[in-house]
Write a structure and sequence with these properties.
alpha+beta; 60s Ribosomal Protein L30, Chain: A; 4-stranded mixed sheet; 4 strands; globular
């Protein structure tokens, strides 16, 4: 997952907002997120030429990122 020195945004809304600004380097999507959620993020990543990975669960993302609620995705911001 994302290197701890990189800044991230959490959740689809923030990821889509940062994609519009061309600020996202990569997207990590939880494998157990809702199908439509995953599909929207994959489509957005492809439209912006951004790589994405599907893997960890929503709970694993929360633990890895130190947040209290499960999250369907995180976006790694460009340096």
């Amino acid at each position: 997952m994302a290197n701890s020195t990189k800044k991230i945004v959490i959740g689809k809304r923030q990821i889509l907002r940062e994609l519009k600004k061309n600020n996202i380097e990569e997207i990590f999507i939880a494998a157990d997120a809702e199908t439509q959620y995953i599909t929207e993020l994959i489509e957005a990543a492809k439209n912006h030429g951004i790589s994405y990975r599907i893997g960890s669960s929503m709970n694993q993302i929360a633990v890895q990122q130190g947040i209290e609620v499960p999250s369907g995705a995180i976006g790694v911001l460009k340096a």
